[in-house]
Amino acid sequence: MNLLIKGGRVIDPSQGMDAVMDVLIADGVVLELGQGLSAPEGTPAIDATGLIVTPGLIDMHVHLRDPGLEYKEDIATGSRSAAAGGFTSVACMPNTSPVIDSKAVASYVINKAKSEALVNVFPIGCITKGGKGESLAEMGELKEAGCVGVSDDGKPVCNSELMRRALEYAKGIGIAVISHSEDLALVGEGVMNEGFVSTELGLKGIPWAAEDIAVAREVYLAEFAGAPVHIAHISTVGSARIIRNAKARGVKVTCETAPHYFTLTDDAVRGYNTNAKMNPPLRSAADVEAMKAGLADGTIDAIATDHAPHHPDEKDVEFNVALNGIVGLETSLPLSLKLVEEGCLDLNHLVSLMSCNPAKILGLDRGTLKVGAVGDVTVIDPAKEWQVEAAKLESKSKNSPFLGWKMKGRAVYTVVKGQVVYQA
Ligand SMILES: [Zn+2]
């Protein structure tokens, strides 16, 4: 619970801080920031010379698959994967079995996390009962149980009137609504981005319009209701443009994208690579550029992984029937650091995208190293080179399109409430 982190470059956008200094954590809380700090005898210390020290990273969109789908991942393994990726907090989506649409299931996640998780686990509850899109879930009860947001992630709320009620009700009780924006009629039987590559491979395509139309609806509903909405995993030129324009006229819309959407194009699907199958699908080079531009100009508020573990039996199959999604917790930070190396973002901005902003969107008392804040810290070696190997991933599942990739940069210490929960 006590820890002295010495001599690192402390980057904390929540207080405009970027300087070499020490961080002293006592009883799990940030006690002091400054140069040449001393700690009581016996306090564990980390020499962070040459390293970057940030408020603990937060992944606001992961699938821990617990309860019910523990053959893919569980709260313990998912949290180990998070810690290895530098994340001190994750928010987990409710499309488990059963879904998180009641106090009982939310409490199960919270209690299991308390006893088994290395990092903070904040559950997200369903927008609709059973995630079925028919009637609103008991959002008040979910919030009371500890849910930090509501989402029917995996599926859109197709009924616009129901989504309007959800936004209005959620605004009233102060809980974030996270939209999985997709027009299912346009998606049809599509399995990858609609374009040149899908034609060449003979696979059914998903047009960008399927995402853009749904994002536009959420923006108009949020504007109409005067309520905030957060759009999950945006991937298209159009989504970024719609959200940029909406923000400019004062709509309370925020959004996230995932590292794969600013790193890979649908070219990765060639060879019918099921580890490149996800929803939304990998898009075109223009979409990748739009994600970078959206991150750079503040249109995109957060980087989230959409960590989606699957068993080999669900991925080592014909492309059309393979399940959507990839694991992402352990590759998110280096892929995001690449944006800094390319000059797309500076480090301060990156820390906002991966810590401060997700905390703000979900209303978490995290994402800051202010004195008195919870002592969640990530210590990053931006120069550390390593290779992604399935056997070394902490996640129970290995469905990553980045296997074999050489990475630069990783978390070398992950600290939760003053305790080192991961050390590289
Ligand atoms: Zn989703």
UniProtKB/TrEMBL annotation:
As recorded in UniProt, its EC number(s) are 3.5.2.3
Please verify whether the record's keywords include Metal-binding: yes
Show the InterPro entries listed in the entry: DHOase, DHOase/Allantoinase_Hydrolase, DHOase_cat, Dihydroorotase_CS, Metal-dep_hydrolase_composite, Metal_Hydrolase
Binding residues annotated for substrate, in chain numbering: 63-65, 95, 279, 310
User: PROSITE patterns of this UniProt entry?
Assistant: DIHYDROOROTASE_1 (PS00482), DIHYDROOROTASE_2 (PS00483)
Which residues are catalytic?
Answer: 306
Cofactor(s) named in the record: Zn(2+)
Instruction: State the source organism's domain of life.
Output: Bacteria
Q: Which residues bind Zn(2+) 1?
A: 61, 63, 153, 306
Identify its protein family: Belongs to the metallo-dependent hydrolases superfamily. DHOase family. Class I DHOase subfamily.
Summarizing the function annotation, the protein's role is: Catalyzes the reversible cyclization of carbamoyl aspartate to dihydroorotate.
This one is known as Dihydroorotase
Q: What is the lineage of its organism?
A: Bacteria, Pseudomonadati, Thermodesulfobacteriota, Desulfuromonadia, Geobacterales
